[in-house]
């Protein structure tokens, strides 16, 4: 069965520093991978997705992620953190059984300090 | 505005009571998914409907039930409520055809507090 593991429930960075949020997946078929962001008291918003094709995927708000099959990873990065990036981030993989629902990781809370 | 509408936004009720949460999917989306988000359990998949039919079940308690109506809106019914049912309940919808290939669109959630 497909699953994702997010390393680190909390990540702290300074404003302007590199953001790196880690996600490793497990899938027996070519995976479809997603990153979502959740701001306080809001729903989840799609940041970016990898389906097929180019392995470096660019999303909204300056975020990008690279699909690395050899490492079974889909880490999320942003070159320079802004205070407004403080939120919870979820990695997800599409299940290939049943009706292809998404399975979410446990989330990583990004804290940005001035 | 994501296009997925959830009502009510907040709900406070007593233990033992029953509540109904409502979701209207994004226009054109046929699939609706319900998730529960709590501090200790994270984001848990409850149930999925596609064009009125149940398609997948996750960690949904027997006290909970859902349905999707002909106009594609969905309702999640929670009964015999317990303190531990306090959580954020999210509805999401996906593109026509039911495939999750392109991700979900989430509503802003209903915060349920059981007292």
Q: Profile the largest sheet of chain B.
A: 7 strands, mixed
Percent range of helical residues of chain A: under 10%
The share of residues in helices of chain B is under 10%
> Which word captures the global form of chain B?
globular
Radius of gyration of chain A: 14 Å
- Helix tally of chain A equals 0
**Uncertain parts of chain A:** none
SSE order of chain B, one letter for each helix or strand:
EEEEEEEEEEE
Count of DSSP E strands of chain B?
11
Q: How large is the share of residues in beta strands of chain A? A: over 45%
Number of strands of chain A: 11
Biggest interface and residues each: A-B, 23 and 27 residues
Major sheet attributes of chain A: 6 strands, mixed
**Amount of beta strand of chain B:** over 45%
SS content category of chain B: mainly beta
Quote the distance from N terminus to C terminus of chain A.
41 Å
Outline the secondary-structure elements.
The complex is a heterodimer of chains A (114) and B (115).
Chain A: E1 3-7, E2 10-14, E3 19-26, E4 33-38, E5 44-50, E6 56-58, E7 64-68, E8 73-78, E9 87-94, E10 102-104, E11 108-113
Parallel strand pairs in A: 2-11
Antiparallel strand pairs in A: 1-3, 3-8, 4-5, 4-9, 6-7, 7-8, 9-10, 9-11
Chain B: E1 5-7, E2 10-13, E3 19-24, E4 31-38, E5 42-50, E6 53-57, E7 64-68, E8 74-78, E9 87-94, E10 104-106, E11 110-114
Parallel strand pairs in B: 2-11
Antiparallel strand pairs in B: 1-3, 3-8, 4-5, 4-9, 5-6, 7-8, 9-10, 9-11
Structural overview:
With 114 residues, chain A is mainly β. Helices cover 0% and strands 54% of the residues of chain A. In chain A, the strands form two sheets. In chain A, strands 2, 4, 5, 9, 10 and 11 form a six-stranded mixed β-sheet that branches. In chain A, strands 1-3-8-7-6 form a five-stranded antiparallel β-sheet, with no helix packed on it. Chain A is globular. The model of chain A has no long low-confidence stretch (mean pLDDT 90). With 115 residues, chain B is mostly beta strands. Chain B has strands spanning 5-7, 10-13, 19-24, 31-38, 42-50, 53-57, 64-68, 74-78, 87-94, 104-106, 110-114. In chain B, the strands form two sheets. In chain B, strands 2, 4, 5, 6, 9, 10 and 11 form a seven-stranded mixed β-sheet that branches. A four-stranded antiparallel β-sheet of chain B has the order 1-3-8-7, with no helix packed on it. The chains are: A mainly beta (114), B mainly beta (115).
């Amino acid at each position: 069965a497909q699953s994702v593991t997010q390393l680190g429930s909390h990540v702290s960075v300074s404003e302007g520093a590199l953001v790196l949020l880690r996600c490793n997946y497990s899938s027996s078929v070519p995976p479809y991978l997603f990153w979502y962001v959740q701001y306080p008291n809001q729903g989840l918003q799609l940041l970016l997705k990898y389906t097929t094709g180019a392995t470096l995927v660019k999303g909204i708000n300056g975020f990008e992620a690279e699909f690395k099959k050899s490492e079974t990873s889909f880490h999320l990065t942003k070159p320079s953190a802004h205070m407004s990036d403080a939120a919870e981030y979820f990695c997800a993989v599409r299940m290939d059984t049943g009706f292809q629902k998404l399975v979410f990781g446990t989330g990583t809370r990004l804290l940005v300090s001035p | 505005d994501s296009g997925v509408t959830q009502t009510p936004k907040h709900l406070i009720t007593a233990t033992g009571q029953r509540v109904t949460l409502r979701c209207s999917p994004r226009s054109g989306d046929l699939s609706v998914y319900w998730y529960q988000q709590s501090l200790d359990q994270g984001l848990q998949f409850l149930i999925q409907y596609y064009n009125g039919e149940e398609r997948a079940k996750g960690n949904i308690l027997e006290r909970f039930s859902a349905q999707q109506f002909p106009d594609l809106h969905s309702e999640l019914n929670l009964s015999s409520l317990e303190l531990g049912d306090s959580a954020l309940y999210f509805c999401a919808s996906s593109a026509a055809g039911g495939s999750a290939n392109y991700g979900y669109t989430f509503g802003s959630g209903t915060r349920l507090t059981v007292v």
